[in-house]
Design goal:
7-stranded mixed β-sheet; about 25% strand; binds zinc ion
Amino acid sequence: MAENSPSGDSITFLGTAGARIMVTSQILASGGLWLSLSGTEILVDPGPGCIVHSTKRKLRADKLSAIVLSHRHLDHSGDINIMVEAMTQGGFKKRGWLFAPSDALEDEPVIFSYLRNYLEGIEILQEGKSYSVGNISFTTPVRHIHSVETYGMIFTTPQHTFSYIADSRYFDGLCRSYGGELLIINVVRLEAGHPFDHLSVPEAKHIITELRPKVAILTHFGMTVWRAKPWEIAERLSQEIGIRVLAARDGMKFDLSQLD
Ligand SMILES: [Zn+2]
């Protein structure tokens, strides 16, 4: 698929760091997912570094139609204000939509109030709801178990369906709620049974086995996963499950035509 082809679907991993230590050390970059879907540009979870890594890759924020925030934690929201400013050309163009859970906008908002007028609109994410951006639709099928209000998404383009499982403690509802040809999954921990509200490698393996996508991409690595070499974990999971599992790399662009 040609670069910036309006009919193609691609996902650029601006960063692959997850949780506090990996993000504050920047051993891996952070910055979220940049979706180019059939000519519609959507930014998901603009963590710290998003403005740097997106501009470096010549991804144009002023072409974005929407920014979608899974939850308010800093590793997902750190650059959300500057990305709203970039999407709206400093507020000179009232454009673009913001989708976020209510607790990202209320008591201690992560999106400054003065920026909200720059946007075409804000929509509150809720469990079981569907949303549309241009020719793309997405749903937030289930509220995750995490310390703040958190949703993953299932995106549907004219050609593909894929899921993004954002931060969560494991629960069976994840296996029942998500689907599609591609699964992107945030895997912070190497071992299960830890006290944190994050998915581990064995839990990710279980989810991939249950959902059986054509391809699964691991990302948002915590220190324990990083030390264990995510690409080796992905290779091992591919062999064990019989499904192609990839470990995202900083700056990796995945073209969804690989699924066809
Ligand atoms: Zn989180």
